[in-house]
From TrEMBL, chains A, B:
Protein's UniProt name: Crp/Fnr family transcriptional regulator
Key words of the record: DNA-binding, Transcription, Transcription regulation
Top-level taxonomy: Bacteria, Pseudomonadati, Pseudomonadota, Gammaproteobacteria, Pseudomonadales
SMART domains (alphabetical): cNMP, HTH_CRP
Domain of life: Bacteria
Organism in which the protein naturally occurs: Pseudomonas aestuarii
Every Cyclic nucleotide-binding domain range: 12-99
InterPro entries recorded: cNMP-bd_dom, cNMP-bd_dom_sf, Env_Response_Regulators, HTH_CRP, RmlC-like_jellyroll, WH-like_DNA-bd_sf, WH_DNA-bd_sf
Keyword DNA-binding appears in the UniProt entry: yes
Length: 248, 248
DNA sequence: CTTCTTGCGTGCGCTAGCGCACAGAGACGG
DNA sequence: CCGTCTCTGTGCGCTAGCGCACGCAAGAAG
């Protein structure tokens, strides 16, 4: 990040009415999110909501025995902390930084008040929440029916969509935690992809060489979630943004 | 159903302010939900929202190859059709009746207008939606990490909580569809439970004999979802309902 | 340049769950 | 009472993924 991040780089913030943006701007706090930082733990009352700029945050469920599984992933298309306006104030999951970067944050209470004052803003947030819901549902299905190979492809694509460039900084161990599988399983799957010339990696750095191939090898889950997310967030009838094709 | 169902048997309808109840009552339509009825298909625009009384409805994702997986389950604690007020108007899943019974339904537009007029009502619906979110997340985790035996226990408990009595009408084949596993897998798991004296079944009728044991044999997922659902929906500070222990 | 740490590769035995095939047994209509 | 359909039980070979153990090599630290 050589240039200063601005709030409008987060799609949700950018989509707010100008008037609301003005009022929120002064309260937004730019926060660096280093890899592995925990934004909140399972059951924590949410003090802030976070709007990622170039960071990626995973919602992770950690079981009693320590095993984990990623529930959903959030980049600059969304926000962390939907429980603030959904009313629960907490969720039984952990929010952890999966790719370092920056985010703007806002006090939960302030955000909640603002959301409740502006129905347009509320409805935007609710559409985002529905996109999140879709992602969770699809994760459930994917966990049930698809191979590690397919899931790795899906996961790489989800991350890629939320990054600029085609390189991820991410060890296989961490990917395994996210997918809820063995590290060796990821090694094997990644090895296959490398042999096929789809990716190239070494010691925590993954280059995606052939995104197209990746999409072919992925299960349907990626496309379903992407399509639905685009429908919910980026198709705004009779506005200039209409038809914007992708997450980023 | 020898007695006439009344709207207040649905927890969400019962929790609405008296004034709103009055206005909705005349528009509520009592509908019988036979086993297997599809309330909506993946991608359908939602014409109605449904409030189950004694029926159970599953949200099911059906993949391209026909395989399926249950995303969440809804009984008289909730409603079918959250996409109406979340703004998406549709979801990529099927709503199918898993246990026959009755539900009240309401035109989606009417419900939406009502929700948008009453913030108290909206907030109740959002809390329910968060409970749904939790259930989906937990389903994802459960699909990843737990055995068919454990998942069957969880599934039986979820159904039991939404029924009166301790008998389910449900073939192993259908349970397998819900869990997204083989029918034989369910046969085996159910056989174990029967040997342990936890359940008793024959040709689509399952009697639960020892609910306690069922909870012990289930994975943590059931308890997590139940606790969170109770927290979100039934704990209303400084009101008579406070401390109500269970879903039903 | 050495040493240590971190990330990746690999092999091996094991189990859960799959796909398939078929058999028996309750329910039910004629 | 008989044929038919639906539901459940069982057996068998197969594979994906697990747990474990160990080796190796690229960077970082000294």
């Amino acid at each position: 990040m050589s240039v200063m991040p601005i709030p409008q780089q987060n799609h949700l913030l950018a989509a707010l009415p100008a008037e609301v943006q003005q009022r929120l701007l002064v309260n937004l706090e730019l926060i660096p999110l280093p890899l592995g930082m925990v934004l909140y733990e399972s059951g924590d009352a949410l003090r802030h909501v976070y709007f990622p700029i170039d960071a990626i945050v995973s919602l992770l469920y950690v079981m009693e025995n320590g095993a984990s599984a990623e529930i959903s992933v959030v980049g600059n298309e969304g926000l962390i902390g939907v429980a603030v306006f959904m009313g629960g104030e907490s969720t039984p999951s952990r929010a952890i930084v999966q790719s370092a970067g920056y985010a703007f944050r806002l006090l939960g209470k302030q955000f909640k008040d603002e959301v409740n004052r502006h129905s347009e803003m509320l409805h935007l947030m609710l559409r985002y929440t529905q996109a999140l819901l879709t992602q969770m549902a699809q994760t459930a299905v994917c966990n049930r029916h698809h191979s590690i190979d397919q899931q790795l492809c899906r996961w790489l694509l989800l991350s890629l969509d939320r990054l600029s460039g085609n390189q991820l900084v991410m060890t296989q161990e961490l990917i395994a935690n996210m997918l809820g599988v063995r590290r060796e399983g990821v090694t094997e799957a990644a090895g296959k992809l490398q042999k096929l010339g789809v990716i190239e990696y070494s010691r925590g750095h993954i280059h995606v060489l052939d995104r197209c191939k990746l999409e072919q090898l992925s299960c349907e889950c990626y496309a379903v979630v992407k399509k639905e997310t685009d429908r919910l967030l980026f198709y705004v009838p009779a506005e200039p943004r209409q038809g914007q094709p992708a997450l980023r």
